[in-house]
Structure formats: structure tokens, C-alpha cells
Design brief:
- With 286 residues, the protein is of the alpha/beta class.
- The chain has a single domain (58-283), classed as Rossmann fold (3-Layer(aba) Sandwich).
- Helices cover 37% and strands 16% of the residues.
- It is built from 8 helices and 8 strands.
- The chain has an 8-stranded mixed sheet with strand order 1-2-4-3-5-6-7-8, sandwiched between helices.
- Helix 5 (179-190) links the parallel strand 5 and strand 6 (197-201).
- The longest helix has 22 residues, at 2-23.
- The relative contact order is 0.12.
Length: 286
């Protein structure tokens, strides 16, 4: 009897336990914390800059009315390859003067532009501008003519205002051949604060400039003396006059380079040496 009662109690206890367990509602399981996935912004592909493929420069033809001359001053401007490509780039300038009885196309005919194109493309020199002004009246003397003063006082500022030139003395040179060399030497020495280099190719000095030159030299500060180049041909009839002027430079401690090349006072001589000239001008800017 006792055993039967124990079994009944055990059965009742188990049933109660099952009912209690069923009465407890199931607890929801915890959801996993969301993970943060950063958003990757797409990287913009840079647009490649266009590449300039020009290998030749070009000419522009200009004319201005100066206050010093009664007639317009005509000139041509050589712009190096890729001049229009990068408007932030500025260039040195060479003012290149023709000889007597010729005009502003002489250095063009002698191949100055093609020579400079080649030097630039070969990486020998950095690009620069060449201005080739015309002397309309070459039959008057250097005192009556206002050609030189007009170049220094009016043409140079005009070029600096209308082209991307480096408007500093050290980035300007003036050079020429024969009578043009005389103008370059006279103008460059008188206007030493405008031009940093002077080139005299087959220099034919003006009569009287031998005596005036010492006064010009004295006006130039010691640390502002320009670079000067003079060359003559072995058969140049004007070589003796060039030597006398070189002697003036030497007497007054004006540094200069003296060069003698094969040839005479003819266009073939200048065209044959034009690359040498251009390298010299560019060396002062590099």
C-alpha cells in the first residue's frame, strides 16, 4: 500500500514539473550585432594631359608705330614649338638684326628658325622667342637714325606686353650680322639695363663708335656687364675693324668672346654658323 502511494506521489510530482516547464514562455534568441561595411568611394581616373607633338615653330608678322620714328617699325616674331600649348610658360627673347640692304627676312632665309627647331627637338637648348625687326632706312648714320632707341625703348616693352616673354634683362639678348651687329653692339651697350647679352657676327662697327664706346663702358656697373660675343671669318674684309673694337673692350676690361671661323662676309658664312650662335645665346639662359 505504501509502495503504491509513493508511486502515485512520484507520478503527480513529475506531471507538475512538466506543466511548470511548459508554462514558461520561450525566450527569444539574441540577434547578432550588425557588422559595418565601409562604402568605398570610386576613385576618379585622372584625365591625361594632352601631349604637344609640334616639332616646328611659326612666325607672326607685326608692325607698330613708334614715337621715335616717323615710319612704322615692322618685324617678324618666331614662336617656338608648343608656344600655344601651355599658356603658363614664358620665354627668353633674342632680338636678331639683319645686315645692310637686307630686311627682316634675312635670318629667316639663313635658317635661324629651322636651326632653333632642331636644337629644341634634340634637347640641346630650351625654347626661346626670336624677334627680327626691319631697319627701313639703312642709309643714315647711327646718330640720325632712331632705329636702335626704338628697339630698346618701344619694341621691347611691346613684345613683353603682347607675348609671353620673360621680361627681365637677363633673359634678353640682342645680336646681328654686319651692320646689324653694329646696331646690336651699340644698342646693347647703351641700353645695358635692357639687354643681358650682345652678339656681333661679322661685326662692322659704326664709324665713331670706337670713340664713344669708352663712355658707354663707364656707365655699366661692374656686376651688370653683359655677355659679349664677336666672330669674324678668316676672309672677312671687315675683320680688322672688328679687331679694333675688340681692343676697346679689352682696354676697358669688358669681358667678351672672340671667335674666328672659316669664311667671308657672306650669307653662307652666317647660315653655316647659325646653330653655334643660337647655342651661345641659349647658354646664358640655361
Amino acid at each position: 500500500m505504501k509502495r503504491l502511494r509513493g508511486l502515485l506521489l512520484l507520478l503527480l510530482f513529475g506531471l507538475s514539473a512538466c506543466q511548470g516547464a511548459a508554462a514558461v514562455p520561450p525566450q527569444p534568441s539574441a540577434s547578432p550585432a550588425p557588422t559595418f561595411t565601409p562604402t568605398v568611394e570610386p576613385t576618379a581616373t585622372p584625365t591625361p594631359l594632352p601631349v604637344c607633338t609640334e616639332t616646328r615653330g611659326r612666325f607672326e608678322f607685326q608692325e607698330i608705330q613708334t614715337t621715335l620714328m616717323t615710319h612704322p617699325l615692322s618685324f617678324r616674331v618666331y614662336l617656338p614649338p608648343c608656344y600655344d600649348f601651355d599658356e603658363s610658360t614664358r620665354y627668353p627673347v633674342l632680338y636678331y638684326l639683319h645686315g645692310q640692304s637686307f630686311n627682316d627676312d634675312q635670318w629667316d632665309r639663313l635658317g635661324a628658325d629651322e636651326a632653333l627647331d632642331e636644337l629644341i627637338m634634340d634637347g640641346e637648348v630650351n625654347p626661346f622667342i626670336i624677334v627680327m625687326p626691319k631697319e627701313s632706312n639703312y642709309m643714315i648714320d647711327q646718330w640720325t637714325s632712331k632705329y636702335g632707341p626704338a628697339l630698346a625703348e618701344e619694341l621691347v616693352p611691346w613684345i613683353d606686353a603682347h607675348y609671353r616673354s620673360k621680361a627681365e634683362r637677363k633673359y634678353r639678348a640682342i645680336g646681328g650680322l654686319s651692320r646689324g651687329a653694329a646696331w646690336a653692339m651699340r644698342t646693347g651697350l647703351i641700353y645695358w639695363d635692357v639687354f643681358g647679352a650682345i652678339g656681333g657676327h661679322s661685326l662692322a662697327p659704326f664709324r665713331g663708335d670706337f670713340n664713344e664706346a669708352p663712355f658707354w663702358f663707364k656707365e655699366i656697373p661692374e656686376d651688370q656687364k653683359p655677355r659679349i660675343w664677336i666672330d669674324v671669318g678668316t676672309m672677312d674684309f671687315i675683320a680688322d675693324a672688328a679687331k679694333v673694337f675688340a681692343g676697346r673692350l679689352e682696354d676697358y676690361d669688358m669681358p667678351f668672346e672672340w671667335h674666328v671661323f672659316d669664311g667671308a662676309h657672306v650669307e653662307s658664312y652666317w647660315s653655316g654658323n647659325v646653330k653655334t650662335y643660337l647655342r651661345w645665346y641659349a647658354a646664358g639662359w640655361d
